[in-house]
């Protein structure tokens, strides 16, 4: 049956009948994830999280629309690994901008970017677009949604293809996980304290960290942990989408309403 929240499945009568308020665009990457996870990891899990959350938010509001996910991401620093696909941030930005303008054209003024890949950075685009267009943009980086609950579920910190991503993969697409091939995810530290502490930044060249394109130990991963993490983040994202869909676009949006003039 056609899902009325899925842009690829609706038809013209459904488009004419429904009043969508919020559009959600998932964005992934196609890249090596240790030796045991699929290249589509970020694309798959981001698409699935978006679908679950939009479905539930749709059931509660009939106002939330899921756009098909963009598979590609910024991967310039992983290109030493075979068949990693890199698109420039400016290319991604151009695509997101065109989609945003299409939404504005059709009267949708709330857009959520659900980002599944650490190399993608949409903050500058959001600042610029909100200056130019009558559109409110929101960015959710999926790995940050449950970071305050991370240590209740996982033992080791994940960064790329470690315990979190492997657990989520074991829950969502276990048939694509080749656990026996996994490397330990140990990454070479920088020689500079400033970089190791994180107050100075440089782009990491993944091929210099280790030989299996991973930062984070996947050995403690399990499908159960992946399921628990997804429950936490899907509940939070769904609630946010429902709130967004139901919130009027008054002059104070997205801030709390000012008190009426008489009470100031
Ligand atoms: Zn990933």
TrEMBL record:
Q: Name the Gene Ontology biological process terms.
A: riboflavin biosynthetic process
Q: What keyword terms does UniProt attach to this protein?
A: Hydrolase, Metal-binding, Zinc
Q: Which cofactor does it need?
A: Zn(2+)
* Top-level taxon of origin: Bacteria
Tell me which Pfam families the record gives.
Creatininase
One GO MF term, please? metal ion binding
Family of this protein:
Belongs to the creatininase superfamily.
Protein name per its UniProtKB record: Creatininase
């Amino acid at each position: 049956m056609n899902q009325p929240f899925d842009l690829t499945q609706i038809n013209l009568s459904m488009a004419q009948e429904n009043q969508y308020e919020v559009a959600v665009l998932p964005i992934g990457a196609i890249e090596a994830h240790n030796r045991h996870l699929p290249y589509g990891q970020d694309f798959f899990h981001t698409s699935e999280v978006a679908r679950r959350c939009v479905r539930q938010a749709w059931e509660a509001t009939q106002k939330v629309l899921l756009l098909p996910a963009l598979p590609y991401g910024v991967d310039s620093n992983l290109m030493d690994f075979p068949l990693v696909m890199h698109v420039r941030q400016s290319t991604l930005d151009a695509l997101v901008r065109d989609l945003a303008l299409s939404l504005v054209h059709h009267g949708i003024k709330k857009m959520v970017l659900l980002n599944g890949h650490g190399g993608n950075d949409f903050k500058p685009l959001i600042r610029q677009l909100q200056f130019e267009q009558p559109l409110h943009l929101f960015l959710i980086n999926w790995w940050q949604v449950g970071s305050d609950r991370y240590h209740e579920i996982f033992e080791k910190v994940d960064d790329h293809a470690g315990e979190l991503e492997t657990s989520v993969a074991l829950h969502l697409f276990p048939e694509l996980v080749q656990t026996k091939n996994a490397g330990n995810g140990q990454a070479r530290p920088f020689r500079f304290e400033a970089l190791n502490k994180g107050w100075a930044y440089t782009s990491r060249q993944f091929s210099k960290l280790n030989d299996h394109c991973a930062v984070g130990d996947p050995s403690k991963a399990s499908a159960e942990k992946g399921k628990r993490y997804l429950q936490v983040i899907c509940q939070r994202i769904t609630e946010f989408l429902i709130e967004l869909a139901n919130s009027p676009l008054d002059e104070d949006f997205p801030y709390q309403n000012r008190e009426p003039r008489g009470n100031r």
